[in-house]
Amino acid sequence: MDQRLEKLEHYQKKMQDWLQLQMQERLDKMKQEMSEKIRESEEDIVAKLTQLITKGSDKRKGPIANVDEGNDDEPLYPPGFTSSHMRTQAEYPRKSTVTIMPQQFRAGVSSFQAGPGFNPKNNPINSAIPDFDELVEKERMKEELPK
After folding, report:
1. Sign of the alpha-carbon torsion through 4, 9, 12, 18
2. Cα-Cα-Cα-Cα dihedral of 37, 38, 43, 49, to 10°?
3. How many domains does the chain divide into?
4. Which domain holds residue 2?
5. For residue 63, what are the CA distances in angstroms to 51, 81, 87?
6. What is the Cβ-side half-sphere exposure of residue 90, based on CA atoms within 13 angstroms?
7. HSE-up of 63 (CA within 13 Å, CB side)?
8. Which superkingdom, per the lineage (predicted)?
């Protein structure tokens, strides 16, 4: 009976070793496959980045699609796409027209200066601006003189 027990223990030990070896081999195989996939993915990313960088440095611009090299089947931009750096026509400010004529042709037009300390009644060009205080004073003078 002791011999049988020893044999069983021996088989059990062999089986455990064999299972452990099998599991280790599977684990090593999985690690190898994962390492290969990671390496391939890294190489693909590096290739794409290199392509973007070389395209951008050729034209001194960013990674913009080259129309000459692209597929004619695919549109350059998706439908409805508007680039953020482009303005639509409605966004451009409207320009007003201004006509500038020499001083001699501007009959009846007076120039107006504004600024700190400017007094329009002391300006000989702006004699067309009435001083209502003076008019009221003259009216009073007229009324007082005949009396």
Report:
1. negative
2. 130
3. 1
4. 1-59
5. 9, 17, 21
6. 0
7. 7
8. Eukaryota
pTM assigned to the model:
0.33
Q: Which amino acid is at 1?
A: M
- Give a yes or no: residue 44 inside a domain: yes
Q: Which helix (H) or strand (E) holds 21?
A: helix 2-59
C-alpha 107/C-alpha 46 separation (Å) is 75
What is the pLDDT at residue 6? 92
3-state secondary structure of 111: coil
7 found inside a domain: yes
pLDDT digits (tens, 9 = 90+) for 60-107: 555 555 555 555 666 677 777 766 666 555 555 666 777 776 666 555
In a domain, 92, yes or no: no
- C-beta of residue 125 within 8 angstroms of C-beta of residue 106: no
CA angle 89, 95, 101 (to 5 degrees): 160
Tokens of 84: 């953020």
